[in-house]
């Protein structure tokens, strides 16, 4: 776990830095410098682009990670990487042409409930293409086991740039329309910088020789388009459907704030995922089942310990945090609770996703994913009209819970390994005890002071219990290392 912990730690730091900037943007700058209508519009544009991204990437970023370590000669590797660079154009070119000739029709569909969206259809296309090629260049560096710079660009760069743009709006250097154009430019620039870094690590030597296993690669890429779309859809279909089904697009803004708070729990998984993917692919290609199982179990307990702590910080301080935000955003309190639980479950799966996406069973991910995507759409369509953003949160929770349970059972069935242990139960008990002890208790100070003091008490108690219960050797070693004990 040495290289995993090393790069995961660095990635966690940069990811939290990014989330810190994102928190400032989401909780304070967006809510104060943009109208609710335009904040909802920005959330809608980014969510829709995220849903389109896997199509634009044509599954190339997933294929690079799965197949790169299977090539041994430089010539075959260069041929493979060349194909991966140009493969997305198979979809990007026709989609762009369709967008050009059907612009008005597409705009009419997207703006059915909110006419403001119609003027920003091309922004969605450009954002989706930039996001797609960013992931391809990031995958290019992941297979070289270099993930830190890419994670910095993925988590920090665009959030910092957006902060500057929001400040420019506040000081009237930009109007809102110019801000949205600037937002698109930021994502394009991020992709360009990622490309330069990726090529500095391994400069492409164009070789249009078709790999021998090209049919398998193409089949995998095609399936990953749908599988990746399912993953993105689960993340963003809620905001997309709220924007389509609710007359007040401001509700997307309120929901986005709540989702952002809950998503902080996913940071450790996102950080560790960058290095787990290529390593899992390597173990699978080499047939090293022992290393695969060890990575599965250790990643699960480590992520559960770390994300469990973040879960406590969020749910124990959420009431105080909402006292700082504008009152109209407090409607998202239920959303924070239920999505936080879903994200905690998600983290506890460890390297489950890496195993499924890089094994010969990736086709089943597609089957599960399509069923789940349909379920998410149906549940959102049922619950949103009745409960609004709370209904969307319920639909998202049920979708994630069902999807994750299916994945755990499938890996257990096919690989005879599962991520959980007695230590997992211990951590869940610790979380329940600390939640009951601290949720209904606060200091009589300013909310920020309350959050800081309660978080300090929880941190001391939580990690003391983690050490005493010996739930994770990796976590215990890191604690002892930094405390010199």
From TrEMBL:
Parts of the chain that traverse the membrane: 12-32, 79-100, 120-140, 156-173, 179-199, 220-246, 252-268, 301-323, 329-345, 365-387, 393-411, 423-441, 447-471
Domain of life: Bacteria
Subcellular location: Cell membrane
InterPro entries assigned: Poly_Biosynth_Transport, Polysacc_synth
Keyword Electron transport: no
Keywords, ordered alphabetically: Cell membrane, Membrane, Transmembrane, Transmembrane helix
Membrane topology field: Multi-pass membrane protein
Principal subcellular localisation of the protein: membrane
KW Disulfide bond (keyword) present: no
Pfam annotation, one family: Polysacc_synt
Protein name as it appears in the record: Polysaccharide biosynthesis C-terminal domain-containing protein
UniProt lineage: Bacteria, Pseudomonadati, Bacteroidota, Flavobacteriia, Flavobacteriales
């Amino acid at each position: 776990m040495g290289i995993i912990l090393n790069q995961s730690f660095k990635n966690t730091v940069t990811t939290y830095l990014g989330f810190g900037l994102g928190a400032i943007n989401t909780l304070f700058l967006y809510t104060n410098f943009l109208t609710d209508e335009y904040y909802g519009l920005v959330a809608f544009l980014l969510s829709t682009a995220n849903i389109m991204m896997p199509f634009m990437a044509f599954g190339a970023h997933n294929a690079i990670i799965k197949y790169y370590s299977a090539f041994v000669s430089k010539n075959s590797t260069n041929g493979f990487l060349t194909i991966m660079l140009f493969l997305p154009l198979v979809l990007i070119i026709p989609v762009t042409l369709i967008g050009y000739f059907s612009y008005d029709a597409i705009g009419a569909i997207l703006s059915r409930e909110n006419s403001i969206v119609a003027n920003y259809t091309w922004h969605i296309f450009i954002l989706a293409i930039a996001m797609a090629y960013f992931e391809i260049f990031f995958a290019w560096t992941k297979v070289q086991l270099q993930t830190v710079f890419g994670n910095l660009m993925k988590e920090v760069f665009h959030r910092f740039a957006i902060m500057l743009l929001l400040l420019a709006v506040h000081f009237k250097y930009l109007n809102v329309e110019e801000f949205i154009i600037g937002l698109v430019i930021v994502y394009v620039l991020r992709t360009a910088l990622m490309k330069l870094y990726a090529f500095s690590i391994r400069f492409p030597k164009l070789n249009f020789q078709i790999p021998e296993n090209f049919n398998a690669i193409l089949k995998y890429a095609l399936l990953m388009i749908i599988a990746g779309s399912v993953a993105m859809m689960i993340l963003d279909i809620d905001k997309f459907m709220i924007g389509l089904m609710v007359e007040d697009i401001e509700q997307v803004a309120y929901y986005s704030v709540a989702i952002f708070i809950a998503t902080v729990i996913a940071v450790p998984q996102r950080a560790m995922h960058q290095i787990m993917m290529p390593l899992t692919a390597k173990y699978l290609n080499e047939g090293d089942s022992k290393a695969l199982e060890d990575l599965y179990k250790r990643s699960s307990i480590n992520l559960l310990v770390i994300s469990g702590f973040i879960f406590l910080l969020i749910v124990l301080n959420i009431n105080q945090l909402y006292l700082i935000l504008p009152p109209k955003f407090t409607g998202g309190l239920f959303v924070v609770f239920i999505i936080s639980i879903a994200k905690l479950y998600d983290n506890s799966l460890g390297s489950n996703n890496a195993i499924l996406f890089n094994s010969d069973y990736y086709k089943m991910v597609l089957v599960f994913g399509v069923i789940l995507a349909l379920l998410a759409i149906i549940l959102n369509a049922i619950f949103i009209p009745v409960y609004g953003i709370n209904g969307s949160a319920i639909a998202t929770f049920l979708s994630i819970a069902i999807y994750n349970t299916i994945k755990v059972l499938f890996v257990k069935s096919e690989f005879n390994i599962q991520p959980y242990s007695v230590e997992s139960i211990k951590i869940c008990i610790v979380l329940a005890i600390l939640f009951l002890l601290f949720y209904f208790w606060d200091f009589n100070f300013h909310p920020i002071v309350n959050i800081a003091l309660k978080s300090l008490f929880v941190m001391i108690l939580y990690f003391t219990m983690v050490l005493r219960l010996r739930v994770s050797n990796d976590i215990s070693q890191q604690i002892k290392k930094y405390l010199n004990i």
